[in-house]
Design brief:
2 copies of one chain form a homodimer. By secondary structure, chain A is an alpha+beta fold. Chain A folds into 2 domains: 39 residues; 139 residues, NADH Oxidase, CATH 3.40.109. The first copy, chain A, has 7 helices and 7 strands. In chain A, strands 1, 2, 3, 4, 5 and 6 form a 6-stranded antiparallel beta sheet that branches. In chain A, helix 4 packs across helix 6 and helix 5 packs antiparallel against helix 7. About 4% of the residues of chain A have low confidence. Chains A and B meet through helix 1, helix 2, helix 3, helix 4 and strand 1 of A and helix 1, helix 2, helix 3, helix 4 and strand 1 of B.
Chain lengths: 201, 201
């Protein structure tokens, strides 16, 4: 009987060594969340594979989870998966050549008319908060993306509006190419304690 | 001998039932990451407890992990933990009364002089991306926060500058109270398929 207990206890010890974090953690893995934030990188090199609609819906849901001033949600999202449209945007936008290899793109559209106080500033801030959620959701799904700016450049905004039929009073904030990363792009460590002021500037 | 194997196999089966996710998953828990994005809420009710410097450093590191246009990092962060300063901000800012119960506050400061093209728009966008990372890091640590706007309101920016000695050419974008949530505040489900345009507006 004593041998049975020895074996059981040995196996238990072995397994808690194999799964040390799990043995004491039934909450979400918070370190993993902070890690995704730190490991998000601007991905400029894609394999050319498509991105599934399932993943795109998860990414859009993350975007719409951002806070907005007075809960106005002054946003809309154009999601491009059509190859010809991706190529047209790539050809016409100097900053978004990586769209030729991306599988999809999301264009975050800011709607000042819907924003708190009909303010362009709040519309842009609210949509930018959604943008960071989109970039993090992409990273967490093993995909890659980067923010290529349209706003505040008038020429780029006009190109994006014209290719995607976006009305003149809507601000196409950016074009976010999304795809499967080749692995070439790496995160930067930008932590700098000089940027922190404790209690006063 | 047969009994020994039976016991070992039974224990193994038991343990893979107890730790099912761990047994097959050595990657970050992606669902947990998307869940934190969806469960982040604007927390307005705090217990009054302090926030540790260790947690504040993790939160600031998350902030500085955001992307910035041409990697300019046009930001600085004032972190307030001093009770008297938190109370002064609470008394003077109509939108930030919850600072009386918060344990800390972060003020994200946008620096147009350092931004791509010295642009106020890029300084604000880059700092807003950092802001969403900060809100998510707070949520992931079991703390609560919300974005109370200073920019673009001139009066509020002047109050924040004056209490915290922030120079006139720096934009105090917001005041983010941080603390231990009472549990009263809940996330909103803002997913709305009407906000999605597939391929064209």
């Amino acid at each position: 009987m004593k041998n049975y207990y020895t074996i059981i206890i040995s196996v238990l010890i072995l397994l808690t060594n194999v799964f040390p974090a799990c043995a004491q953690n039934d909450k979400p893995d918070n370190n993993a969340i902070l890690k995704v934030i730190q490991e998000r990188k601007s991905v400029r090199h894609f394999t050319g594979e498509t991105v599934s609609k399932e993943d795109l819906n998860k990414i859009l849901k993350a975007g719409m989870s951002a806070p907005t001033a007075v809960n106005k949600q002054p946003w809309s999202f154009v999601v491009v998966t059509d190859r010809a449209t991706l190529d047209t945007l790539a050809a016409r936008l100097p900053s978004a050549k990586m769209l030729f290899q991306a599988g999809a793109a999301i264009i975050i559209c800011a709607i000042p008319e819907k924003a708190n106080g009909k303010s362009t500033e709040f519309a842009v801030i609210d949509c930018t908060l959604a943008g960071e959620n989109i970039l993090l959701a992409v990273e967490s799904l093993g995909l890659g993306a980067l923010w290529t700016a349209s706003y505040p450049d008038k020429d780029r905004m006009d190109i994006v509006r014209s290719v995607l039929n976006i009305p003149a009073d809507i601000i196409p904030l950016n074009v976010i190419p999304i795809g499967h990363p080749t692995g070439e792009d790496k995160p930067k460590d930008k932590f700098n304690p000089d940027n922190i002021h404790w209690d006063k500037w």
